[in-house]
Design a protein that fits this description.
By secondary structure, the chain is mainly alpha-helical. It is built from 2 helices and no strands.
Length: about 80
């Protein structure tokens, strides 16, 4: 597929915006996960295994939902093909 100069500039701008936002958001998410990990300090906090399981499930579910969004978006970009042998 060939893009015009204008389309290439728009796509580059979209890419730059994606990279900038991804860097910021993933860095923030990683920092927040580290802060959640700090809750494991038993000298400062009281929690149960059930609490930990709920936290881990919530995080895992959200990562799975995020992954699914990317998978769906990537599938939309590929055109379905059909072949007969």
């Amino acid at each position: 597929m060939t893009y015009t100069a204008q389309e290439q500039r728009v796509r580059q701008t979209d890419r730059e915006k994606f990279v900038e936002l991804a860097r910021k958001r993933v860095s923030k998410a990683m920092k927040d996960i580290q802060l959640i990990g700090n809750l494991s300090n038993r000298s400062n906090y009281d929690y149960t295994e059930e609490d930990v399981a709920k936290i881990m499930k919530a995080l895992s579910d959200e990562v799975s939902a995020c992954r699914k969004k990317f998978d769906v978006a990537m599938k939309k970009q590929t055109k379905p093909t059909f072949e007969l042998e």
